[in-house]
Amino acid sequence: MGNSRKIPDGRKKNGDRAAGRIALLTVLILLAFLIAQTMSFSKAARAESPLNPQNTFQDTASPAASGTEVGIGGLMYRLDSGAHKAVLLGNISLEGVITIPEEVNYGGDTYSVTEIAGNAFSDNNAANQKITGFVFEGKKNLLETIGASAFYGRKNYTGALDVPHSVKTIGMEAYRGASFSSLTHKKVAGLQDGISFPSLAGARPELRDEAALREEGYESIVDSSEGNIALRKSAKWTDAHLTEAEILIEYGENEQMVSNLDFIFVMDYSTSMLTPAAATGISDGQPYSYPRSFYMEDLVRDTARAILGDTETKGSNRVGLVAFGGVNGGAHDMGSLLWTTGFTHSLQDIDSALTAHPLIDDNVTDYTAGMKGAAQLIEEREQQAGSEYKNRKTVIFFLSDGMPLPESANGAAEANQLKGMGVEILPIAMYTSQNRYLQALSSSGVVYEAADTAKFEEAVSQALLEAAENAVIANTGLVDVLSEHFVFQTGADTDALVSEGGGSAAVLSDQAVWNLSGCSTGAVHTLTLKVRLADGTEMDKSGVLPTNKSLGAAGGIVTDAQPELERYLVNYRFINGDDPQAQLPEEVMSLLPPTEGGCRDGASVSPQAVAEKQVAAENGEVWVFGGWDQDEVTIDKGNVLYTGKWTRPQLSFEFIKVDGSSGGTPLGGAGFTLYECRFKKDPGHTHTELATGDASGCWQEKLTDVSDADTGSVRFDSLDAGQYLLAETKAAEGYMLPHGQWLVTAEADGTFAIEGKGNSLPPAFALTSDDQGRTVYKLPNYKKGDVPLTGGFGAVLFTAAGIIVIGLAAAQLIMARRK
Fold it and tell me: Taking a C-beta distance cutoff of 8 angstroms, is the pair 88, 118 a contact?
């Protein structure tokens, strides 16, 4: 066998064992080296990966195994290579407002970001300190889950959080303690289809077409319909002089339609409302798990929409919000009131308030604060002076998911006070069974239970229907009050006529009381009132006259707008045309036409004729009417005033002194005095025949003049119509002063009547015309020795008398000779 040695069996076995140990150790060393290299590569890739605009990571690594955690774009993800989904685990290095992507790329594969892990951005990670807000990419709607406490406790998150509508699950306290300024989410819960106030009983009774009223002559129509009340008042004149009128009141109501109500949602914002609850989406039927507060906000929005009606139209109902919470162990009063809104008609106001006040803080259930918040809204409403919303029926929906903490914060005292004021309180127990504290708040003792989201929706619907049923406003008695311009025509009940089936009416002083008890709803009833202008005001009342002061009812309806009838007057006045501020004599004013009325707007009117156009006053003054300032006038929303002018005519008496023997040669130098009667204001006075110059006569000197040397003209100006006495006081040189005087009567039209006066009559005035056809008065005079001195016809008579005397003397002489 040569040099071969036989090894004992025991030693051979020991050698085999040693070789095995060496081989195993070698394998372990190689495995440790490979693991170290892999970890080193992972850290290098995580540290060196750049953030591109799409938040995707480009590398040449092999596809990741399921469960691999990698850093991409400054964020950490856990990848599921089989499903190609990624869970966002948290922040690595990003600051400010960050964008959460819908997809990331790694190892050549695309992963959908479907979940934000629990605590991903909570205060447990120091890397989140410099983040201020989040923006979600929203093109593909891939995010489905936000984990518990995902944003927990971070006060530096101050922006809006708009949860993508693709999210179906939100974990416990996902954003509790953060400081988001607002929070929006998909609507999941809502009212049952068809639940809305307008649909509870249909529309209010329909009034007939307004055109039909116009055809019946109604001139003013005021429609005050609102909510479930149909109310219209119309008025028209019924006589030619617009002194009697008719008022038509049309009224109907639908008792089951709710209107003119104020609703308050008192909402529990305690921490338990952050607890997720299961729900089926109202629009898509998909399963959801959202915080309870989300469902409460959805239902408040829907209920507000049902109450307020069409968002484009301002309705009669209003809604206010109250959110309450509290600090455990703190004072449970108004300090626990988180926020309130005023009453509003606007759905946008409600939505904005809910969005801007997300439930994120630690709070306890404080009923007292909630009830005090509701009382505060009502008190503020009542303190608004002259508010149309005073004493409104108020309904409170009290929403809570737990019992008061502590027990003393149960709000019972505040609720009893509100119920004593007529406020209706409807508690809804959310995600719990009713408790005795909620029952104590209820107006009826009923608590609407909502053990889950579906029951929650049903409970709100039932409470809404109860509010509609119990808040009926039925006006069985209406009182219409006339304005100060009108009274009832006879003052008897016959002045108030109701339609068939329209109840009864009575007239009481200036009111008509309409009793509608037993009248059918859903129909329009009418009341017709016969009225007239108050006695003695027919020629005073003009312009736009309201027919009524108000119409009210025990149910609270009060109308301020009233029908208005128009009537206008035609007035007259006289003024002194010479001095508008001076008074006219009574004889003139007695001719003033009376006021005419009433006239409709647009009517054509003409002035009345004056009975006399020339009047002699008691004082002797003569006044002449100069006419009205305008003729036919069309009334244009105002009274008409005609102004007539009266004047005292200022006349001029002018004549020419002429030589009666030489064919009318003008004589200058003749003096004249014009006298007026000192008793002219005495209508019973009789003039003395001649002016004697002493106080025994009535004539007193007024004016003097001397005939012009060239023209012989004598002129007296500024004469009133009336009688004067003219005397020639100085004859022209070489001429004889005539006997007698002249009574001159000045007429208002400028003509003069002249009559000689005295035992020996003066020469008569001769009337001629000038080239323009105007009358010219001429007064002749005669030289000394000329006969006759009486002039004109006097000279002829004197000559004839002389001839007769001579003839008689001759006849006497002849007869004497015959004897």
Answer: no
CATH number of the domain that 77 lies in?
3.80.10.10
Q: Where are the alpha helices (H) located in 545-596, listed in sequence order?
A: 586-589
For the entire predicted model, the pTM comes to: 0.50
| Number of domains the chain contains | 6
Q: What's the domain range around 756?
A: 651-786
Q: Is 481 in contact with 547 (CB distance < 8 Å)?
A: no
Per DSSP, the three-state class of 197 is helix
Q: What is the pLDDT of residue 255?
A: 54
Instruction: Name every residue whose Cβ is closer than 8 Å to that of residue 344 and which is 6 or more positions away in sequence.
Output: 318, 319, 320, 350
Q: Are residues 310 and 439 in the same domain?
A: yes
Contact 490, 512 (CB under 8 A): no
What is the domain-level CATH number for residue 523? Answer: 2.60.40.2110
pLDDT, averaged per 10 consecutive residues of the chain (819 residues), comes to 41 49 53 44 36 39 76 95 94 94 94 95 89 89 94 88 94 90 88 53 76 94 84 94 95 66 90 90 91 90 80 67 75 67 90 87 85 92 74 87 87 93 88 84 87 74 66 64 94 94 90 83 88 92 92 68 94 94 94 93 95 85 92 95 93 94 89 92 85 85 95 94 93 92 91 93 91 90 67 43 46 50
Among 401, 305, 415, which residue's Cα sits nearest to residue 369?
A: 415
Q: Among 749, 757, 751, 736, which Cα is nearest to 689's?
A: 757
Nearest to 585 by CA among 620, 612, 626: 620
User: What letter would DSSP give residue 608?
Assistant: P
Please, are residues 17 and 37 in contact by the beta-carbon 8 Å criterion? no
